Fold DUF1488 domain-containing protein.
Amino acid sequence: MAFLFTMMHGANIVDCEISSSALDDLDHTKGTLPGERQAQFMRLRETVERVASVAFEQGKRKGEPVRIFSKQSRRCDDRWNAAAFLKPPAFRRTRPSRGR
């Protein structure tokens, strides 16, 4: 299961997805019900955008969606406390898509 969302990079729309387990890792919880997933995403939106921005900058594969898995979210979560990672994301906010 994954939650789909889009972000902007300049004038380009970038498709993104974050796994349910990655959202739970960022929320320090387990087993969030599918009906509660959008509220969880909105609560964690800033952090998810930062993780997606880092993943995009590291990958930069044109046309491919940015995918965030549990392993990435655990690795990035500890770094958000560092001042170097408090810069704005490379993307401009858009809106969540439907989760699948």
Q: What stands out?
A: The helical segments are 20-27, 37-43, 45-59, 70-77. The longest strand covers residues 2-9. The longest helix spans residues 45-59.
